[in-house]
Write a structure and sequence with these properties.
By secondary structure, this protein is α/β, with parallel strands linked by helices. It has helices at about 15-20, 25-40, 50-60, 70-80, 90-100, 105-115; strands at about 10, 45-50, 85, 120-125, 135, 135-140. A hairpin with a 2-residue loop joins strand 5 and strand 6.
Length: about 150
C-alpha cells in the first residue's frame, strides 16, 4: 500500500524489524516485538521499499540464524499493509542533499526522506542519534535508555 501524507505515523527502520526476527538478540528481540505489535495495534506503522529490501537481504543471509526466504517474504507482505514510501527520483535527490547538509550516510538520509514523505514524526532506528530531529522527523532508538516503553 502506498500512502500520501498521513498524521500520527511512526516509521520503522530495517534494523528494528531484523531484531524482531533475531531470537538470539535477547532484550532487543523483546523490545522490537513489543514495538512492532504496538505500532500495528495502533495503526501507526510506516515503512519504505528500502526497508523491505534491506530486511530481506540481511534476514535471509546475515542473521546468526537466517530466516527461510518464505518467512522473510511473509514479513514483507505484513509490512506492505502499512503505509509504504516508494521513492522517486526527486526523493533520491532530496536524500543526497540531506546526506550532505546533515552529514549522514546516503542510506540514512533516504530513510529520513521516506519518513518525512509519509508525514511521520518519529523514526524508530538504532542507526542514528536518539533524540536527533532532522527535517521534522525525530529519531528514537527503541533500545536506548528511555526508548520504547509500551
Amino acid at each position: 500500500m502506498t500512502s500520501g501524507i498521513t498524521d500520527g505515523l511512526e516509521f520503522i527502520d530495517s534494523n528494528v524489524i531484523l531484531y524482531l526476527h533475531d531470537v538470539t538478540a535477547g532484550e532487543k528481540h523483546r523490545v522490537a516485538k513489543d514495538l512492532v505489535k504496538h505500532m500495528a495495534a495502533h495503526r501507526k506503522g510506516a515503512t519504505s521499499i528500502q526497508v523491505m529490501q534491506e530486511f530481506y537481504a540481511v534476514a535471509t543471509r546475515k542473521l546468526d540464524r537466517p530466516l527461510p526466504a518464505d518467512r522473510a517474504r511473509s514479513q514483507i507482505r505484513a509490512l506492505a499493509l502499512w503505509p509504504t514510501h516508494s521513492p522517486n527520483p526527486a526523493d533520491v535527490l532530496a536524500a543526497t542533499g540531506l546526506a550532505e547538509t546533515a552529514q549522514l550516510s546516503f542510506w540514512d538520509a533516504m530513510i529520513l526522506t521516506s519518513a518525512a514523505a509519509l508525514g511521520c514524526t518519529t523514526l524508530w532506528s538504532e542507526d542514528l542519534n536518539d533524540g536527533q530531529a532532522i527535517g521534522g522527523v525525530t529519531v528514537r532508538n527503541p533500545f536506548a535508555a528511555g526508548g520504547f516503553q509500551p
